[in-house]
Amino acid sequence: MDIKGLSNNIRRIRVLRGLTQENVANDLGISLVAYGKIEQGKTDISYSRLSQIADCLQIDIAIFFQEIDVPNTVCDSQNYQIKNQDIRRLEKELTEVKTDIKLIKTYLFEPSKKM
What we know:
Elements (H helix, E strand, L loop, with lengths): L2 H14 L4 H8 L3 H8 L7 H11 L15 H37 L6
Helix pairs in contact: 2-3
């Protein structure tokens, strides 16, 4: 497998794992630009760096060298973004529910502070 195929596999697996380039770059302790060059096949990847990427993606390093059938990686990336929007919406709703619970507790258990 050539460097381009290896780089494409790294990108595909990262997207399937729901990680951004920034997530992986931060985990590796390198710049986003440096990591981007890895995924673009513009830099040689040492075995130790490849091992670090595999650890970050929680996969066996051998998977990078296999054929990965991902029919529409862009679609997977869009689905990830949609999931993130859902998560942010749910986090906001959870915060609102926690606030409501505090108000209810105050009302029930501290009668002097009734609304």
